[in-house]
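User: Before I run my own analysis I want an independent prediction to cross-check against. Here's the chain; please return only the structure tokens and, at the end, one sentence I can use as a sanity check.
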Amino acid sequence: MQHALTFGPSYEGTCAAASRYNGRRSNGSKLVNLPIDKLFFLIDFLGVFVGAFGGALAAVRDTRYKYDLVGVTGLALVSALGGGITRDLILQKGPPLAFADVRYLITALAGAVIGMLFAQRIGKNTERAIIFIDAAALGLFAVAGSTRALNNGMTILAAFLLGVTTAVGGGCIRDVLSGRTPKIFERGELYAIAAAFGAAMFLLCDALKLPREASTIVGSLCGFGLRLLALRYHWETRSIRTE
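Assistant: Structure tokens:
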């Protein structure tokens, strides 16, 4: 998100398979049911909803183009689902989770429809709540993307890159389809950096042999916390070219 309601995290297809990694014991041999799974599950679908909602708002409020129903819906779905689909296509381990679990598509479509209907009626309190959910989803999605990569035998560097891709890929694809340079490539708020920080902390904890649950919590909170701090104190990246 480079401004209030242009969201980057996209569906990361994480909690459809939450029991496969969030509830994993430290020895990886058995699964347990953890209450935190429900929290991650909630954040996952809220993040998908917010991604589609924000994508629809950005399309409706775009002053350069007048998108129709197909345009707004398409950009909303790409914003919500693009990062996770990209990750799953790279991993080549079956169909993307967005297509394997219809709940993701339904959630994204719901976010798109509501975004279209209420684009002109969003107040400041609602925007703050959306930004908070978006930040929480950013941290979780970055960690979930890295987790899925590790579970499929990828190296740490590859897992790091896929974690960031998962978190910000949808927003990048949306910007490209809208005829823009992806906002994460321009000077602005810490978004991709927050995702990278969350993924890196998760991978560090995992390399230190911490339980997967603890690593997931630390990584998610680091990404979430950095994003909120950046918004609170207006931290921004600088342009490499100083002219």
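Sanity check: The radius of gyration is 17 Å.
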